[in-house]
């Protein structure tokens, strides 16, 4: 069955999408918005994305990988944005297993073994 | 039964969830006090177990994950397997699915801890009762609860049976605090140890006055499940010689903890254990009877069953094995606290141990009954707020032990533990100025001795 990826932008689209896949293991990578050339304003996100993508092959069968652009830099810096308030995100990039306390934040996302551990361990 | 992630007893089914639930109960009491301080709180206030449990359980799981990330980050190989010795340098592990892993090593450290015991002579105990392992992970409220422990003594840390009345009192304390009908049944109250009995009875008196029911000198004979799914417990009241029954939603056993050494295959490799407790015998360097095999934590004989001592012993062991250190773990004057509704913290010798060690003529016990300032406006009873300090009468009047019953006992005792470690004396303490207004300052003002027989109630300010 493998795994599938879906891309979303903004908090509401993220929540709707997560609800749609309720019941399946959901992993999400949150990054800053990308410009017309496809580069994120968040340099750590630029570093982390290829590392995470390389490990996607280790996702358990039936998983969903949500790639979520959170918004522009100003939106992100607001301490009250919905991602910070409701999902308790503290930084981007954040890679998490939805519905569990398991997550990797910022430089942790650069480490392939940690990403693999998040994808494969219970 | 219940299973959990990386972090040991403390993180999963001990200190962490226990302290958080104790805090939940304290907040309930604080809400009641708040009215006296001007807050408009609609009474009666209600507590929802599942909200608290979810918060606590999620936090514990985040700690499990944090530990896992740290291990991986420090390049520590983690095998999630059930291990046993195949020979002195080889451990065989089995995954849940039955897959085998073999690991060999020059040095091996055993730190498998202990698990709560189930009573063996009570019908239905295993099938219908739970232990603290399960209590913290219940998704729904335990409801009307009976907790059973064998002894009622606090901190008899080198006890033979490893009985853990602390657990039953702490759990009963927070269950009562969140509004549940809670009963503690205990088989015997100790005849030995005047002072631990004194501290224990102050703590339990306070619990009684706040609604915990105590059935003293009683022991259960059977537990049966009723059609309603409730549990009917039958017990013998040894004072009255009668048999009594009552029904509960939950029965929790707190009859001690024992190490799970049977499955480790220790005999095969020659690691000696204490025949009565099953705990591993170690020397001052944490080595077992097999020189390259070590043991730390709750599984070791004669050590306190505490997190910080296990962690410290492990760190020092690592330094000795790989860091050219020769420093051994110092198990003297380890401070500790029982997180009952009114907390009991202590460091150093109990009054009884001091008497045994030095003779009652050579020690002086200073004590005081005090009232926390915060209790005054809240109109709370402070009858059991008490402290005592055991000192030598000669040799500079060195402080041997300090015992404190009151709010935030752990926070109060921690600082004094340093003083005792440095050999602080009564005259030095008297020269230490107190912080006002606090409960801790009363320690610096202790001056009434038990020997004088004078009233030890603090007056003034």
From TrEMBL, chain A:
SUPFAM superfamilies: Thioredoxin-like
Positions of the Thioredoxin domain: 8-121
Domain of life: Eukaryota
InterPro entries cross-referenced by the UniProt entry: Thioredoxin-like_sf, TXNDC17-like, TXNDC17_dom
GO molecular function, one term: protein-disulfide reductase [NAD(P)H] activity
Intracellular or extracellular location(s): Cytoplasm
Disulfide bond keyword on record: yes
Assigned keywords, A-Z: Cytoplasm, Disulfide bond, Redox-active center
Major localisation: cytoplasm
Family: Belongs to the thioredoxin family.
PANTHER family in the cross-refs: 42-9-9 PROTEIN-RELATED (PTHR12452), THIOREDOXIN DOMAIN-CONTAINING PROTEIN 17 (PTHR12452:SF0)
Name by which UniProt lists this protein: Thioredoxin domain-containing protein 17
Organism: Formicarius rufipectus
Name of the encoding gene: Txd17
Automatic annotation (TrEMBL), chain B:
Cofactor entry: FAD
GO BP terms in the entry: cell redox homeostasis; cellular response to oxidative stress; glutathione metabolic process
Enzyme class: oxidoreductase
Domain of life: Eukaryota
Domain Pyridine nucleotide-disulphide oxidoreductase dimerisation: 334-445
GO cellular component: cytosol; mitochondrion
Boundaries of every FAD/NAD(P)-binding domain copy: 6-314
Keyword entries, A-Z: Disulfide bond, FAD, Flavoprotein, NADP, Oxidoreductase, Redox-active center, Selenocysteine
EC number: 1.8.1.9
Catalytic activity line of the entry: 2 glutathione + NADP(+) = glutathione disulfide + NADPH + H(+)
GO molecular function: flavin adenine dinucleotide binding; glutathione-disulfide reductase (NADPH) activity; thioredoxin-disulfide reductase (NADPH) activity
InterPro entries the record matches: FAD/NAD-bd_sf, FAD/NAD-binding_dom, FAD/NAD-linked_Rdtase_dimer_sf, GSHR/TRXR-like, Pyr_nucl-diS_OxRdtase_dimer, Pyr_OxRdtase_I_AS, Thioredoxin/glutathione_Rdtase
Reported function: Catalyzes the reduction of glutathione disulfide (GSSG) to reduced glutathione (GSH). Constitutes the major mechanism to maintain a high GSH:GSSG ratio in the cytosol.
Family that this chain belongs to: Belongs to the class-I pyridine nucleotide-disulfide oxidoreductase family.
The protein's name in its UniProt record: thioredoxin-disulfide reductase (NADPH)
Gene that produces this protein: Txnrd2
């Amino acid at each position: 069955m493998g795994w599938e990826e879906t891309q979303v932008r903004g908090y509401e689209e993220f929540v709707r999408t997560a609800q749609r896949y309720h019941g399946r293991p959901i992993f999400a990578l949150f990054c800053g918005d990308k410009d017309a050339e496809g580069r994120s304003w968040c340099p750590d996100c630029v570093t982390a994305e290829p590392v995470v993508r390389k490990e996607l092959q280790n996702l358990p069968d039936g998983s969903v990988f949500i790639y979520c652009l959170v918004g522009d830099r100003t939106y992100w810096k607001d301490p009250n944005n919905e991602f910070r308030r409701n999902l308790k995100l503290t930084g981007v990039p954040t890679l998490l297993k939805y519905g569990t306390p398991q997550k990797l934040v910022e430089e942790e996302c650069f480490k392939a073994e940690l990403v693999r551990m998040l994808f494969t361990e219970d | 039964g219940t299973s959990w992630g990386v972090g040991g007893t403390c993180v999963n089914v001990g200190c962490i969830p226990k302290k958080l639930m104790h805090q939940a109960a304290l907040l309930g009491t604080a809400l009641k006090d708040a009215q006296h301080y001007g807050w408009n709180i609609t009474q009666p206030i209600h507590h929802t177990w599942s909200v608290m449990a979810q918060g606590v359980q999620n936090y514990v799981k985040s700690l499990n994950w944090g530990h896992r990330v740290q291990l991986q980050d420090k390049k520590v190989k983690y095998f999630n397997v059930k291990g046993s010795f195949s020979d002195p340098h080889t451990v065989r592990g089995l995954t849940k699915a039955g897959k085998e892993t073999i690991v060999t090593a020059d040095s091996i450290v055993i730190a498998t801890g202990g698990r709560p015991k189930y009573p063996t002579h009570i019908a239905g105990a295993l099938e219908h009762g739970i232990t603290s392992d399960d209590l913290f992970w219940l998704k729904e409220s335990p409801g009307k609860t009976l907790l059973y422990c064998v002894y009622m003594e606090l901190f008899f840390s080198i006890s033979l049976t490893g009985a853990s009345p602390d657990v039953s009192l702490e759990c009963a304390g927070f269950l009562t605090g969140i509004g549940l009908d809670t009963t503690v049944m205990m088989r015997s109250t100790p005849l030995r140890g005047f002072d631990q009995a004194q501290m224990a009875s102050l703590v339990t008196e306070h619990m009684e006055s706040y609604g915990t029911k105590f059935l003293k000198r009683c022991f259960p004979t059977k537990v049966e499940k009723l059609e309603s799914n409730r549990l009917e417990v039958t017990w013998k009241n040894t004072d009255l010689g009668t048999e009594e029954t009552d029904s509960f939603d939950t029965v929790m056993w707190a009859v001690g903890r024992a190490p799970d050494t049977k499955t480790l295959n220790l005999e095969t490799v020659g690691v000696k254990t204490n025949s009565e407790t099953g705990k591993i015998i170690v020397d001052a360097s944490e080595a077992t009877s097999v020189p390259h095999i070590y043991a730390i934590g709750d599984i070791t004989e004669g050590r306190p069953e505490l997190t910080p001592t296990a962690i410290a012993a492990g760190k020092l062991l690592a330094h000795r094995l790989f860091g050219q250190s020769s420093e051994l773990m110092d198990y003297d004057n380890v401070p500790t606290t029982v997180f009952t509704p009114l907390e009991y913290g202590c460091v150093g010798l109990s009054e009884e141990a001091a008497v045994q060690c030095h003779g009652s003529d050579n020690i002086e016990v200073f004590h005081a009954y005090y009232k926390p300032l915060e209790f005054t406006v809240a109109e709370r009873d402070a009858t059991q707020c008490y402290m005592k300090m055991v000192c030598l009468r000669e040799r500079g009047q060195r402080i041997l032990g300090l015992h404190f019953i009151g709010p935030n006992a752990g926070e109060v005792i921690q600082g004094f533990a340093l003083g005792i470690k440095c050999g602080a004396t009564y005259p030095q303490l008297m020269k230490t100025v107190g912080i006002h207004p606090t409960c801790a300052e009363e320690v610096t003002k202790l001056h009434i001795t038990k020997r004088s027989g004078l009233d030890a109630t603090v007056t003034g300010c």
